[in-house]
Amino acid sequence: MHGFKGERVLMRIHIGERDKHNGKPLYEEIVELLRTRKYAGATVFRGVMGFGASSRVHREHFFGLSLDVPVIIECVETEERIEAILPELDRLISGGMITLERARVIMYRPHQPEEEGPDDWSTDITGSWKVFENKP
Question: What is this structure's pTM?
Answer without folding.
Answer: 0.72
